[in-house]
Structures are given as C-alpha cells and as structure tokens.
Design brief:
The complex is a heterotrimer of chains A (about 280), B (about 325) and C (about 325). With about 280 residues, chain A is mainly α. Helices cover about 75% and strands about 0% of the residues of chain A. Chain A has a single domain, classed as MetI-like fold (Orthogonal Bundle), CATH 1.10.3720.10. The chains are: A mainly alpha (about 280), B alpha/beta (about 325), C alpha/beta (about 325). Chains B and C meet through helix 6, helix 7 and helix 9 of B and helix 7, helix 8, helix 9 and helix 11 of C.
C-alpha cells in the first residue's frame, strides 16, 4: 500500500472508532517514554535519597518516591523502555517464527505438520515460569534470556493461528490460480497467502502484547530477568507491594497503573488494527 | 492432425482414512478423452461425478493415480505437478475458476493479479513491458483501465469474471479450462461474458474445456460434450446430437431435466435418488445401475464399455444402440 | 380470489451509506392454487419482497407505504405475536441453501416436530408420527430412518425436501420459495420443482416462486412478475410473457437467457447497469438502460398500463 493510501485508511479506521484512536494515542505516549525516557524524566531514576524516602505524591514528585527515595514518575517513564521493549521483542520473535512454522505446517500438511505439531505440543506442556526458571538456570539470569523464554512459550499461539489460517486458504481459487501461474509452493505462501493472513495475525499480536507485558513484569516480580536497581514496572510493583499495609499506596499503584494502561491499550488497538489492515476495507 | 490434449486412462483415487482398510474413493476412473486444437469441449455431470477432479487433473494441479496426459504429443504426467509448475508447458494450460471460490486474491490489485503469471510464466522482468502486456490483456477482455488499480471487493461480479479470464489468457495458453465461469453471474452479465469467451477463443486460437452444470450454456459454446457420472464417462457426442438424441439413460434424464417452458404441459421422466457411493464401487457393475430406469441383470454384472453408437458419438450403456430419441 | 395481495409496497433500508430505496410501488397478487413466479436479477428486490411479506426484514428496513393482505388479514398492521403465529401455520417459506437453512445439530425429524409443536394442535405423543408423515409426503424414501438423520448426512436435494416438509407441515395457505433450487443439480432441481408444483396444486396453496432463472419460471409458473431495481415492471400469464413481452427489460432478459435454440451470436446483453438505489432515481428505474427512452420517461410518474386483464406493464411505451 502506498503511504498516501495508508494514511487515508488510517484516518478512516480511526475516524470510525474513537476508542481505538484514544488507545493509539496513549500507546504513542508510552512509546515516546520508551524512546526518550531518560531525557524526559524529571529526575535520575537511579539517584537515591535517604531524606525523601516514601514521600507521598506532591508537586515535586507527582508520583511520590519509593523506599530508596527515588522519584517514581521518572522510574515509571524510564521503565517503559524495558517493559515495552521486552514485550515487543518477545512478541515479534514468536510472531515471525510462529508464522513461518505454522504456515509451512498448514500448507504442506503431512509430516511437516506432524513434526511442527509435536514441537508445539512439547512447548505447551511447560508453564512459562517453569521454563523461564529452567532457562535462567541453564543460561544465566539476563533480560535476553527472559525474552527467549517468553518467545518460546508464546510460539504455539502464533504457530497454530498461522497454521489454521493457511489451511483455510490453501484450497481457495486464488491459490490454485497462483499455482497455475507458475508460483512454486514457497512463492505461493509468501506472496499470495501470507499477505492475507497478516491482518488477523496482527490483531492477535496486539492482544498478545498485553500478555507479554504482564509476563515480563511477572517474571521480574519473582526476580528473574530484570534485577534492581533497574527500573521496570514489575519490579516496582514488587518493591512497592510491601508498603500496601503501611499505607504508602503510591509505591505500587503508579507502576501497576502503567501496566494496566499499557495492556488495556494494546487490547483496544487490536480491533482497530484489523480494520486498518483488512484489504476489503481499503478505499 | 494430432489432438492438442490427450488423456489416457486417467484415474484418481483418494484413500479413505476412516473407513475399511485400503478403501478408496474413485473420483475419476479410467477416463480417456481428447481435445483438438481450437476445439471447444463441454464437460457436464452432477456434483460428485468427477468433473472438478478432471479440471485439476487436466490443469496439472494434482497428479493422477495412474494414466497419462499428453500435451501436443508430449507426456506431461511423466513429471510431478510440482515439477510441471516450473516447466515451459505450464503456460499452455490455464484455468478460469469459479468466482464463488474466491478466485481473486483479496490483497492483490487487478494489475498485480494479471501481471503475476506474466512474471512467473513468461519470465517478464521489464516493468514497462509488463505494463503494456497487462493493459493489452485488459483491453482484450473489455476491462476498463481505471479498474486496474482496484481490489476485487471493489468490482462487480462481471468485472471479477473478466479479471479471472484476463489472468488466464495473458500468457496465451493453448488450452483454457473454464470451471463454471458464469454460474455466479446474472443472466445479462453472463451473456456478455459468454460472448467474450467465444470471441477470445477465435482470436487467440485456444481450445476450451468448458465445465458447467448449465446445459444450455454448454450448448452455446461447445462443439462436443462429455458426460460424466460417478467418475466415468458415460457419453461423448457432438453437441446437437447430445441434446436431441442422447443415448445414455443418464444423459436422457439430464436433458429432460433442463427447464423448458415449451414443454411445461408435458409430464417428463424424472431421475430421482442420489448416485451410489464412489467408495470402492463394484468394478463389474454399471455405475448407473439401480438408479437407471432400465437396470437389468446384465447391468449389474458387466460394466458397459464406452463404444461408438454414431458418428463421433460414444456411449457406455448396454442398450445404447437401441434407436430412441429423447424419450426412453 | 387472491389469497395474497401486495399493494403499492415501498420499502427502504437505512444504511450507513445512505437510504436504499429497495422497493417502490410493488403490486402483486397470488390466487389460491396458483404459482406466481417473481423473476429478477440481483438487486431487483425479489427477496426483499418475500422477506417483507414474512416480516423477516431486519431493523434497518422501513415500510414507507403499501398494504399486504393474506386471506383478508392485514399483515403490515399485525402485531409481532400475531405474525409469529401466522408464520409457519398460514404462511411458510423455503430458503436457498437448504443445508445451511436447517439446524445443523438437530435431527431432521425433531426439526419438523418443532414446527408442529409450535403451530399444530397435536398431542405430543403424535408429533413423531406426524413428522414422519410429513417426510413421506415429500417422497423421502424410508422416512422413519431418515427422520433420525442430521442435515449434514443428507444430500442437498434431501435437505430441501426436509425444508419443504417443514414448510408444509401445517398446510399453510401461502408458500414462498426463495430460489429453492439454487445449488442443486439440474436433475434434483427438476424433482424438487415437480414436488413443489404438485404440493402447491393439491393443497391449493398460493405459491410465490422467487428465481433468477426465467426458464425455470417458464416451466413451473402460471403467471410471472418481472422485477427490476425494486420495481415490478411486468406481470402476465407465462405464455404471454414469454411470447409477447411488453416491457423492454423483459424482452432483453428473455433474449439474454440461453434456451436450447439460442445461438451465441444472438445472445443479448442488457446495456448499462442497475441504478444505485441510494441515489435520486427517475420515475422509471430502467430508463437509463432503455433504448426506447423518451424525455417524458424521466419526468412524469410511471403509470401502470393494462394491456389485458391478466397483463399489466409499468411502461409508457410498451412493446
């Protein structure tokens, strides 16, 4: 699609759905935080201060400070990079690999399908946290390894989806026509089938992002992957959780709200994306 | 003169997984036919008769279980259909698909849909050359240029039919297989498309295999008609002979079933029931046995061969030689 | 005496792209024991007419004017509860694609029993037998066994018979058949149409046969109404319509329909396209495609011309 057509379709899709537009704007803001975080944060997220620990929200610290006196607003802003970054990396990787494996399985069937199916069944037998811990033990506790663990667990989701979508389209007229037109199986998949399954898959990806963010946060919550003092929403919720009883609610509430907001907006965006990408809605 | 296409004893069996060991569905069973250069042959039969499978066999989308297909004398079944896709023979046989089966890629613009086979089959690389060829083909099928940038969902049924035809004839095939090309169209649009098809055939000197359930349409475009039933050919005849003096009881029932306002007052013989199962049919019984009004013991014990019953007229029935007209 | 009468019916649909004037001034009637064919291409309004009679249109539909009476009862002013009672009992409909019109996971016998339970005054223990009898009436072989089948186990023709059995279970006085044989093989089509005709005659039902196939209407209907872009353009007895069509569209449609004697060179196509029903439309919706068009056709209201008591045409300059 040309850029002009894309812009026009975007306007159309968003015009029809205000909620999607709102979600997109909020996500854009979060993306800005992710990209420019350190520059726009009012304070250095790592600077501690013994005097201002657990200060409630005020003009100076709109989100208050945490147990080590660090400004929570700055930490929430900077944490966006890690949370969104981890989630997007994991989702993007499993999307691409899942799409490839699922398409091959769905198109060729037979042995390819069975092998891929067995592999996916094996992966689905592992709960995320068990797998993550296994990988951490084997390869070390780092952000990269957490991304890999999340990506592996997420793989079957895209693989099955792609497989089903390709399967449905495999016998349609235009696929047979593509074969008549001299396209070998890989070309048929790449040029003729996959462009049609990308829209529904992108919708799935958007919904999946919410899950991925929560999982990244969850793993950090239990100490895998990101470690203090790196700002990350999951860790911040974990650190702030101990202060719920004593009434310092701002320590976990703001990072928690950021998580909720991000997940919610990705879910809202899913529908809008479908409208945006569906060729039948193109003008 | 050697025929353009010759099918010899084609069979296509599909193994049935769930049923008894080794059970096979006989989609196409020992079918032989020829299509001459510039000839239009019709293929008719009810659903399940094997005509869709024949379309895919002759179009080399699937491999036959046994049998050969000769194109211009060369055996194109010697290689698998996957190899055939990249061989020079691929461009000589093209198919126009039913619109109902979503025959146009929803994410391709019309231009792309027509250009793709040019790039793949004729190895065209030059963008200008491709554009010229696409425009020429669009003009040939009466597709206005402004439609070239549209998506299928922005086209009417008649326009989509033209795109399907353009895509197939752009590479100038020798044989065009048409699988119910007008069944989804309104009558007035159908008329235009049929005239277009007749015109193209003469201009591009193609042979046609025209598959349709609408016998009146087949009668308009075809010189010869092949009738199939449960995977076998039951009759082959020149078009007028088939409609005025069919020899096989199934063909007679088929012709009698065509709605005809002129015969509204007559009680005509009707063929009721459904075909018997195509799974492991009795090789020694006529496939039409049981449903045929005649159904004698001979029919149950001996498969009738396809044999001549008139000039260029063949029927597979033990009683085909009895001189009857349209009525039994 | 007409059992079903539609008088000057106009229906509009509110859509996000504008108001679609789907029907305008539609007038038809069907007598007892008569089969009226409603013939038209896509967009002609034939299905909308049927759905309006059965009150099955969705909420976007608005009836702007007209009356529909069945056996004297005014259907348009009837309350929804009254309509629900009438549907199934006094008036019945058969749809296209029989297999998808039936409940996919309910045995067919039970589906017929459902209709009977709702509309017939039968004690529950007699329902099963009545359902089997209904199947036998539509000549399904081995009806007791077939009643236990699911729709996916039956062929298209069988499913259509089941649908006919359901429609006729309570002996309605009006039957609407909306493209009942689309998708069926020609041999099955012939059998199903014969069945519809026989049932219609023997039960003296008023039957409305909606089809795009003029040949089919020609064989099975007593009278034919031709529709174009929401208008009824001509109504006549079948032989009259086929031999002496009075409306230019009817004549073009006949010339475009392949019949055994057709030749490809003489097969007609109708110029132009259907007008956009959302736009401002001239009084005659065919004028844009008509070779006999005169300025007055676009200016003054379109009259009904009666060529004979049984032959009316909506044209200023009938053939």
């Amino acid at each position: 699609m040309s850029l002009v057509a894309l812009a026009r379709n975007t306007g159309y899709a968003f015009g029809e759905n205000r909620l999607t537009l709102a979600a997109a704007i909020i996500l854009a803001l979060l993306a800005l935080c992710a990209i420019f975080g350190p520059s726009i944060a009012p304070f250095d997220p790592l600077t501690t201060s013994a005097t201002t620990k657990l200060a409630p929200p005020s003009a100076l610290h709109p989100f208050g400070t945490d147990a080590l006196g660090r400004d929570i607003l700055s930490r929430v802003i900077v944490a966006a990079r890690l949370d969104l970054g981890m989630a997007i990396s994991a989702v993007a990787l499993s999307f691409v690999v899942g799409l490839a494996l699922g398409s091959l399985a769905g198109y060729f069937g037979g042995r390819t399908d069975r092998i891929v199916g067995r592999a996916m069944d094996t992966i689905m037998a592992f709960p995320l946290f068990v797998l993550a811990m296994g990988i951490v033990v084997a390869l070390g506790n780092s952000v990269a390894n957490i991304i890999i663990a999340t990506m592996i667990i997420n793989l079957p989701f895209y693989c099955r989806f792609a497989r089903a979508e390709v399967n449905v389209r495999r016998d349609l007229g235009y696929v047979e026509a593509a074969r008549m037109g001299g396209n070998g199986p890989l070309r048929v998949l790449l040029n003729h089938i996959i462009p049609n399954i990308l829209p529904p898959m992108m919708v799935q990806a958007s919904l999946n992002m919410g899950w991925a963010i929560l999982n990244a946060a969850g793993l950090s919550f239990i100490g895998l992957g990101v470690r203090p003092p790196t700002p990350e929403w999951g860790i911040m919720v974990s650190e702030g959780a101990s202060f719920i009883i004593s009434g310092e609610w701002w320590a976990f509430m703001f990072p928690g709200a950021a998580l909720v907001l991000a997940v919610f907006c990705f879910n809202m965006l899913g529908d809008g994306l479908r409208d945006l990408l569906d060729p039948r809605r193109r003008v | 003169m050697a025929p353009l296409l010759e099918a010899r004893s084609l069979t296509k069996f599909y193994p049935i997984k769930r049923a008894a060991r080794g059970a096979k569905l006989h989609a196409v069973d020992d079918v032989s036919l020829t299509i001459g250069a510039g000839e239009s042959v019709g293929l008719v039969g009810e659903s399940g008769c094997g005509k869709s499978t024949m379309v895919r066999l002759l179009g080399r989308l699937i491999d036959p279980t046994t049998g050969q297909i000769l194109l211009g004398g060369e055996d194109i079944t010697a290689m698998s259909q996957a190899r055939f896709t990249s061989s020079p023979g691929r461009r000589r046989i093209q198919i126009v698909f039913q619109d109902a089966t979503e025959s146009l890629n929803p994410s391709f613009r019309v231009f792309q849909a027509i250009a793709d086979p040019l790039k793949r089959l004729l190895d065209m690389r030059n963008a200008d050359e491709i554009e010229r060829r696409v425009r020429a083909t669009a003009g040939l099928v009466g597709l206005p240029e402004e439609l070239l940038q549209r998506y299928p969902h922005q086209l009417s049924g008649g326009q989509r039919a033209r795109v399907g035809i353009a895509r197939a004839v752009a590479v100038e095939p020798s044989l065009l297989i048409l699988d119910e090309p007008t069944s989804a169209l309104d009558v007035s649009v159908q008329a235009v498309i049929l005239r277009l098809l007749a015109d193209l055939r003469d201009r591009l000197k193609m042979s046609y295999l025209f598959v349709s359930h609408d016998l009146n349409v087949v009668r308009l475009l075809c010189a010869r008609v092949v009738v199939m039933y449960l995977g076998k050919i039951v009759e082959i005849a020149p078009v007028e002979a088939l409609f005025t003096a069919p020899r096989h009881p199934y063909t007679r029932a088929l012709v009698a079933a065509i709605p005809d306002p002129a015969r509204r007052r007559e009680a005509r013989p009707r063929l009721d029931g459904s075909p018997t199962s195509p799974i492991d049919p009795d090789p020694n019984a006529c496939r039409f046995y049981g449903r045929c009004p005649k159904s004698t013991d001979l029919c149950a014990t001996t498969m009738p061969p396809l044999r001549a019953v008139g000039p260029s007229h063949f029927a597979a029935c033990h009683f085909a030689l009895s001189p009857v007209g349209g009525n039994p | 005496m007409a059992q079903l009468e539609i008088d000057n019916l106009s229906v509009e649909f509110r859509t996000r792209h504008g108001v679609v004037r789907a029907l305008e001034g539609v007038t038809l009637s069907v007598a007892r024991g008569e089969i009226l064919g409603v013939v038209g291409e896509s967009g002609s309004g034939k299905s909308v007419t049927a759905y309006t009679v059965m009150a099955l249109n969705d909420e976007a539909a608005e009836i702007k004017s007209g009356r529909i009476t069945m056996g004297g009862i005014d259907l348009l002013t009837a309350r929804p509860e009254a309509m629900r009672e009438l549907r199934g009992r006094e008036m019945a409909m058969i749809f296209q694609s029989p297999r998808t019109a039936l409940h996919p996971i309910r045995r067919v016998g039970k589906q017929i029993e459902d209709v009977l339970r709702e509309h017939a005054n039968l004690p529950s223990r007699d329902l099963k037998q009545a359902a089997i009898a209904a199947l036998a009436r539509v000549r399904i072989p081995d009806p007791e066994r077939r009643a236990e089948a699911y729709p996916f186990e039956l062929s298209g023709g069988m499913c259509q018979r089941v649908m006919i059995a359901m429609a006729l279970a309570c002996s309605p006085s009006v039957l609407i058949a909306d493209e009942p044989t689309t998708g069926l093989d020609v041999t099955t089509q012939a059998v199903i149409m014969d069945l519809i005709r026989d049932m219609s005659r023997s039960a003296r039902m008023s039957t409305l046969l909606i089809t795009h196939d003029l040949g089919l209407a020609g064989e099975y209907c007593d009278r034919i109404a031709v529709m174009h872009a929401g208008h009824v353009v001509e109504i006549a007895e079948t032989e009259t319509l086929l031999d002496h069509p009075a409306h230019p569209y009817t004549r073009q449609l006949l010339a475009a329909t392949p019949v055994p004697e057709s030749r490809i060179e003489s097969l007609n196509s109708i110029p132009g396209q259907l007008p956009d029903l959302r736009s401002e439309l001239p009084p005659c919706r065919f004028s844009g495609r008509c070779e006999r068009r005169q300025p007055i056709c676009d200016e003054q209201e379109l009259p009904w011309t009666e060529l004979s008591p049984a032959h009316v045409v909506r044209c200023r300059f009938p053939l």
